[in-house]
Amino acid sequence: MTHAAIERFKALETAFFENTKRSERTQARFAAAACLNADDDPATMVRRALRERDAINQERSGWRSPSTSLRLVYGAALASARKDGGGLIRMMEALETERKRRGGRSLSSGGAPAALVMMCAGGSFSQAGMFYDVLSEISAPWWRRTPASEESYAAIMTATGEIPATAMDRLDKAKNTLRTARVPRSAFNTCLYEVAVADPRTDDFVSAWMSLNVAARQRSGLQRRATWAGLATLAAQVEDGSQAGDALVQADEFVQAHRPRITSIAAGRLTVRLAASMTGLKSPGGAAADYAAVLAAQAAMIAATTAATAAVVAAT
Length: 316
What we know:
Blueprint lengths: L3 H16 L5 H10 L7 H18 L11 H10 L4 H18 L9 H9 L7 H11 L8 H13 L4 H17 L7 H11 L3 H15 L5 H15 L4 H17 L6 H15 L7 H30 L1
């Protein structure tokens, strides 16, 4: 029997496809994923997501952040959290005003990722100062920094009322948890902050991590598609690793069989997102972050292909 979360995703995807351009299908899929945990029917969610995207478009020209290719997903995330596009812009402005007052580094993507998480997690404009206090405390040295992840983590810690010292303590605990479970070091920077947000007990994480790895081996290529970081993020948020493993396998079966075919870069992210929803998890702005990662991976692939082509041309 198909899980209710998969049926809802299919209904949301159809609704977004019917109301967006064919060229926006990847965005539409992640927009559908962003609305999975909302209570309203698909038609209402699409209408509200488009309304919030329009609100962003009215206040931001095409060359300003958030990127036009992300605005549908941002609109969906805001609609799911019952926030508005205008509020997102005001939050971005509040963060930028505070940054100018203090000096220091600029936020990634004009502060859009951090502002989205702040909004969806229930933060207020008045918390801009605390956001920078938390960010200053948790920032890694520039040569091993992942700006968007740090900023999103600082945003959710701020929105939920945590102080800088607590945010740092949770990061240290997350590092120890990942080491104890022997999560590959290559995945640390990608999943560290989401594990710290979930703040799991180490024993629970290790058990869930092992169960998810066993589940991932049941289907050819599932571990590669989900990635170590995706499995670690999911392990941090569940109590029953076996249940999450079953959800992961079912989600992967659906994504691989789904038509129109989901691109390989997007497939793994959607699989993990669906598995999370099937186990009742929520992640403020999570689908938007996933889509941003897909865009970054696609850009890297284009750059690598262009470089390879140029090298061949030069050689001839």
